[in-house]
Amino acid sequence: MKLRDLVYRLYAHRVEGRLDLSQGPKHIGVILDGNRRWAKASGGTTEQGHKAGASKIQELLGWCSETNVEVVTLWLLSTDNLDRPERELVPLLGIIEDAVRDLAADGRWQVHHVGTLDLLPGGTQLVLKEAEQATVGNKGILVNVAVGYGGRQEIADAVRSLLHDHAARGTSYDELAEIVDIDMISSHLYTRGQPDPDLVIRTSGEQRLSGFMLWQSAHSEYYFCDVFWPAFRKVDFLRALRDHAARHRRYGV
After folding, report:
1. Over 60: is that where the pLDDT of 147 sits?
2. Which of 242, 238, 195, 239 has the alpha carbon at shortest distance from 220?
3. Is residue 108 marked as binding?
4. What does this protein do (predicted)?
5. What is the pLDDT of residue 81?
6. How far apart are CA 210 and CA 78, in angstroms?
7. For the chain, what is the mean pLDDT?
8. Which ranges of the chain does DSSP label H, i.e. alpha helix?
9. Is 18 annotated as a binding residue?
């Protein structure tokens, strides 16, 4: 073992030992950013970058399973990404499909799609549906795979669903205008019934949400990490938990 690796492990163990997991986040959202830039810096192709990023997902979930995390939302493909050239989008969708199949085959996680299925190719839709069906009842972490996801689109879809629901009940628009509230809209989100994220992590150094979980993250803590997603390490994850814990203590004063 190289000296650098040994020092890294000792440091990670030290950080982990000082964490109070009872105060840790229950729901973590992750914006998996930096695959292409990691590939460029490494002399590889964009496809290789996306594959490296996909392989990191199981590592992250393993780290989460060692804590009290109950829900993880992974932003794999935004609605904006669907406008990419076909030569780039098709391989990316294939990598995402393989990643979702791997999550379902693992047997530990419960997979749930968040996003607009109708925007995705039929093959991708089928993979997502089959993964959900195959993992119903699994007792491990609930893994939301955000594919074809956009925060504004989610809110629009929630409002549309709410309107259709009440139209079917015979509620007039005037009546609905009087009773509609935050809870009603929340009950039509992709993540309905789930706790809102306590912590949102974004890799690659970018410090913006880009539309990720706009409604749900109103009270979330944010942790922006400088490393590209394929290079994200356990110590980076532990630092995010440490940062969340420090803020939690401050707010508790």
Report:
1. yes
2. 195
3. no
4. Catalyzes the condensation of isopentenyl diphosphate (IPP) with allylic pyrophosphates generating different type of terpenoids.
5. 93
6. 9
7. 92
8. 3-17, 35-42, 46-65, 86-106, 122-135, 151-169, 173-179, 182-186, 234-251
9. no
Q: Which of 68, 81, 165, 236 is catalytic?
A: 81
Q: Among the options 33, 144, 196, 198, which is catalytic?
A: 33
Residue 222 confidence (pLDDT) above 70 = yes
Give one DSSP letter per residue of 61-85, joined into a string: HHHHHTTT--EEEEEEEETGGGGS-
Whether 81 is catalytic is yes
Determine whether 30 is exposed, middle or buried from the number of CB atoms within 10 Å of its CB (0-12, 13-18, 19+). Answer: buried
Each domain of the chain, given as residue ranges in start order, spans: 25-151+196-251
pTM of the model: 0.91
Determine which helix (DSSP H) or strand (DSSP E) holds 218, and give its type and residue range: none
Q: HSE-up of 224 (CA within 13 Å, CB side)?
A: 7
pLDDT band (50, 70, 90) for residue 23: confident
Annotated ligand binding at 221? The verdict is yes
> 233 among the known binding-site residues?
no
Q: How many CB atoms lie within 10 A of CB 221?
A: 19
Residue position matching structure tokens 């110590």: 235
Ligand-binding annotation for 214, yes or no, is no
Chain segment 195-205, per-residue pLDDT in tens: 999 999 999 99
Query: Is 160 within any annotated ligand binding site?
Result: no
Which residue do the tokens 């109950």 mark? 70
What pLDDT sits at residue 64?
96
Choose the weakest-confidence range: 6-20, 69-83, 230-244. Answer: 6-20
Assigned architecture for domain 25-151+196-251: 3-Layer(aba) Sandwich (3.40)
Give the total residue count for the chain.
253
The answer to whether 138 is a known catalytic residue is no
